[in-house]
Amino acid sequence: MASVLACIVALLCFKRSKASPTASPRACVELEVPVSIDTTAIKWLQPRVDSNVDAVDWVANATTWTSPNMTESMIGTITVRQTFKINGQLCVPPKGSKRSDILHLATHGGGFDKRYWDPEIKTKEYSYVEAALAEGYSVFTYDRIGTGKSDKPDAYDIVQLNVQREILRKLTSLARSGKLVSASKNLSGIRQTDNRLNNYKPSKIVHVGHSLGSILSIGLIQNYPTESDGVIATGFLHTNVQLGGLNVATWGFEFARQNNPILFKDHGSGYCVQATPSNVQLQFLKKGTFEPALLDYAWKVRQPVAVSEFKSLLTAFGPDGAKFKGPVHMVIGENDYGNCAGDCKGTYDLDMIKTQIYPAAKDVGVLIQPGTGHGLALSKNATAGYRVSFDFLHKSGL
């Protein structure tokens, strides 16, 4: 019954909607954040990728049923003590906004950088940043290592999910301390003009994710359940019986540097990228529910994925999710091809999620967003989905 209600709610929000009557004027600062971590990564048994031929071979190796499974592929451990340069953007709403002390810390998924949350075309219709600011929230988006303007370290031994999770944890800690701006290199020159940014210190942090970014946000609360006040996990669904459809063979990978030697000149061995716009469409969008301009945009801003990010997907999760006390909202496109083999209706058990995975959570909800693919922020009903998530948070006092 609960899952049916979720679908009904989604259907009511199918048409494109605005997050508020007027969009918020932006007050943002671009930062280069130094993030130091001390953790353990895994040495994986896998082919190297230094050409398009290698990329196809890597995909075949990863999907052949007789290839070593995840446990069998672990051949050692690696100590990672390193400081990474993380590019991020902090935005605050206008003065007097009643939720400005609540920070949405957003982590993008594979194939994108932080621009996923804030498309540079038709911003009012698609931007999560714009919608959250209009709702009165503050927002921090960032490029995960290996993407955008952040560091691009070794794709085999460093760019792994547990490393990315620890970076998210450190960013969370910096934000809570009020030192996110002061500890960073200011790339916008705005430090002297807006103390709301310079001295920003949130009272609550909501972790927002898309796809791989949702896995990192969920991994954070499952390993450190007191370090988040709430989660919006988009492109992700617990207990999904069709999750086997998430297969690297659907990405259409090529070696990033060979695909575009100029665009991906900073990406070395082991970084793969989608080969064509059609590959992007298959993975992220559903015919009839996206504008061609948004597919063009997704292709323009596409980002490589490190091979060990796929190998290490399960290493982000942890044993303490049952201790998390905040609200958890999962949003999945009805026609998410990678997650649900094209149809997410009836693929999950909300009661099980509530009683077995997050029994202490303040609230748990699922939104099946109608007629939408994996790239929810690039679909025509993007802002309708944001509206449902915001209302969900409001019920929990966020």
Tell me what you see in this structure.
This protein is of the alpha/beta class and 398 residues long. The chain has one domain (2-395): Alpha/Beta hydrolase fold, catalytic domain (Rossmann fold). Helix content is 31%, strand content 21%. It is built from 15 helices and 12 strands. The protein has helices spanning 2-12, 52-63, 70-73, 123-126, 128-134, 161-177, 195-198, 212-223, 256-259, 277-284, 292-300, 307-311, 337-340, 350-357, 382-395, and strands at 27-44, 74-92, 102-107, 138-142, 185-186, 204-210, 230-234, 253-255, 271-274, 305-306, 328-333, 364-369. The strands form 2 sheets. Strands 5-1-2-4-3-6-7-11-12 form a 9-stranded mixed β-sheet, with helices on both faces. Strands 8-9-10 form a 3-stranded antiparallel β-sheet. Helix 8 (212-223) links the parallel strand 6 (204-210) and strand 7. The longest helix has 17 residues, at 161-177. The protein is globular, with a radius of gyration of 20 Å. The protein starts with a helix and ends with a helix. The model is unreliable at 1-23 (pLDDT under 50). Residues 1-19 form the signal peptide. This is AB hydrolase-1 domain-containing protein. Residues 108-378 form the AB hydrolase-1 domain. Keywords: Signal. InterPro entries: AB_hydrolase_1, AB_hydrolase_fold.
Estimated share of beta-strand residues: 15-25%
Q: Kindly state the percentage of residues in helix.
A: 25-40%
CATH superfamily: Alpha/Beta hydrolase fold, catalytic domain
Largest sheet: 9 strands, mixed
CATH architecture: 3-Layer(aba) Sandwich
Instruction: Return the average pLDDT rounded to an integer.
Output: 91
SS-based structural class? Answer: alpha/beta
Radius of gyration: 20 Å
Q: How many structurally independent domains?
A: 1
- What is the class in the CATH system? Alpha Beta
